[in-house]
Amino acid sequence: MECCLPGSTFHHLNYLDMPDPRSVEDLKNALKRLPGVGPKSAQRMAFHLLERDRKGARQIEQAIGQALTRVNHCVQCNNFCETELCEICASASRNSQFLCVVETPADLEAIEQAGVYRGKYFVLMGHLSPLDDIGPDQLAIKELMTLVSRNTVEEIILATNLTLEGQATSDYLCELLAESQIQVTRLARGMPMGSELEYMDPGTLNQAFTNRSTP
Amino acid sequence: MECCLPGSTFHHLNYLDMPDPRSVEDLKNALKRLPGVGPKSAQRMAFHLLERDRKGARQIEQAIGQALTRVNHCVQCNNFCETELCEICASASRNSQFLCVVETPADLEAIEQAGVYRGKYFVLMGHLSPLDDIGPDQLAIKELMTLVSRNTVEEIILATNLTLEGQATSDYLCELLAESQIQVTRLARGMPMGSELEYMDPGTLNQAFTNRSTP
Q: Which of A71, A211, B30, B94 would bridge with A63, disulfide CB 3.0–4.6 Å?
């Protein structure tokens, strides 16, 4: 067969190093910077944007540009914000005696959607994670301490995730706050609503038994 | 506890409809247009870009802008291209008697990296998929037929994927090309290199037995 290289099934010399044009390669490399996106996903995304959804590509381009320009941190709670003070911090109807410390804006959102909390927040923007080079200086812990020292907070509710990193962050904050006169609490641990004992992990069952209460 | 809404654990009235600033919401919505990205991934990506990698965000923004402006289709093979004719189509060292039809640029790249083929290509940019509203008109089939009719192609190698959609596309092209005098072939079917019988699916084993050859 004349179309094939002579006598070689796995010949690695004659292939093009970069069959895709420069801009497509650049786009794939850029998309790989998104979390959870590897070379294959990046390729699929680049193909999709260029071949099936150029309008969507333009939308992403503009949204990134706009967000980079406009989004900063609320000077009080450290959440993402387009103004100096975010909506919650600026609100007079939120009780500023309570400060709920969360890892991310998504956590804050989840609590807001549960509609159970009317105090204020502080967003750390992450958790301690030495493996990812995220120590206390990479989180907004200094800002939290400043806020706590000058504010009228009476109770700090530590609402970090119940993961290893979240708990380490919570423990670290507990130590820092031990000297202050402020009451520090954490979210209750136990069985989540709708759960079945059969499928519950030992750690949760352990907490559920330890923290059992009268009905 | 004064911080809580009275007497309600699951109160859905008082939550904020959009706790994130407008630009963050826009960014999340834009990122959802990427294939395989749902609301949770989009949120994680937006957070990552804004909090951990603003440089990367700028890189993505610029790469999209550049790709949208520069990347078009090669007038001959329909692959992504920044010039009128792509590198392979413009090359004098490629045998234009052979035309290999693939679904995507990634497929072309895989064949190039195997280094086994020295003919030319045609990139359909997808496969027939009625469920996704991709029919013959959404693929570059008309362009393929034009190329075939005016060119000196002697053999067309159908190298679509061995998925249902890929095979349907291949069957459709076979029918269209039946009237022409050009020889139409398809890639061999059988056991992939390095595979073990024990883990092979029945369809592949079936093909491997049917197409068996003397060593």
A: B30
Chain B closest-CA separation from residue A67 CA (Å): 5
User: Which of A3, A47, A106 is nearest residue B118 as measured by Cβ atoms?
Assistant: A3
Closest CA to A37 of B65, B37, B54, B38: B37
Residue bearing tokens 């990296």: B113
| Residue A162 DSSP code | S
User: CB of A82 within 8 A of CB of A71?
Assistant: yes
* A150-202 tens-digit pLDDT: 768 999 999 999 999 999 999 999 999 988 889 999 888 888 888 888 888 88
| Partner-chain contact A64 B61, CB within 8 Å | yes
Cα A5 off chain centre by: 51
> The whole model's pTM is what?
0.76
Task: Answer whether B95's CB lies under 8 Å from B118's CB.
Answer: yes
Alpha helix locations (H) across A10-140?
A: 22-31, 39-51, 54-70, 87-90, 105-114
Quick: pLDDT tens for B24-42.
Answer: 999 999 999 999 999 999 9
Which residue reads 């090309």 in tokens? B177
